[in-house]
Amino acid sequence: MRFLAKLCERLRLKAPDERAAEWRFDVPADTLLFAIGDIHGEARKLDRLLAKIAVEAERGEQEGLQTKIIFLGDLIDRGPDSKAVLERLTSDPLLRNARFLMGNHEQAMMDFLQDPLSHRAWLDHGGLDTLGSFGIVASQAVAGERLIEIRDVLASRLTPSMRHFLSQLEDYVIYGDYLFVHAGLRPGVPLDEQRQEDLFWIREPFLSSRRHHGYRVVHGHTIVDTPAILPNRVGIDTGAYAGGSLTAAFISKQTLSFLTDL
Hints:
The protein has one domain (30-260): Metallo-dependent phosphatases (Purple Acid Phosphatase, chain A, domain 2, 4-Layer Sandwich), CATH 3.60.21. It contains eight helices and ten strands. It has helices spanning 2-12, 43-62, 82-89, 104-114, 121-133, 145-157, 160-167, 196-201, and strands at 31-36, 66-71, 99-100, 172-175, 178-181, 216-223, 228-229, 233-237, 247-251, 256-260. Helix 4 crosses helix 5 (121-133).
């Protein structure tokens, strides 16, 4: 069975194709999909965006449609209130069936919690902001035993629901012909052979690839002023922490559109 699954996956991969306009990507007819880009600790923007999604979800439910919400990772770091973001994501009834992906920033924090001496680089890439949201004072100069102390305090301030939440983050999610992932894929590599390093970190050659990846890939990680809409991918990290909006792709059987917190 595994051989057949891998064969089917390879058959889905297609070389670059001038007939990209003919590609068709679909989702189940009874489904509304919302994919939310990189939040990066912007709790207020998340609140505003979720309020809009709740309105659309209620409309869809009145028409017999099921709402599926996917978060593309990088929930934390850089922005002002990662703690509030984690609290919202682990308590909001709207999100009880949501799917949450691992981003490179979640991976960096989890690595720091496991081995702060080897992974102190997290502090330099947004980790200091996350620590601050938990009331932990640190600086870029921190080192040695102080790193271990900071790790221990952070671990004690993560609630059991937060720790469980972080342990359950997924590498990717598939609905219909859409694949949702934090950063992207290594072009030409079957999905079951992709490395986590690429799923969480890749930019090139994914961003410039015009290959059919077997799915239309919806991703974050790379900031764009407005959503990047290409035949083979849709990028929705619109730089929420850097003064941009927080964006969600709104996908149904007939349409691809976008919601923002603005």
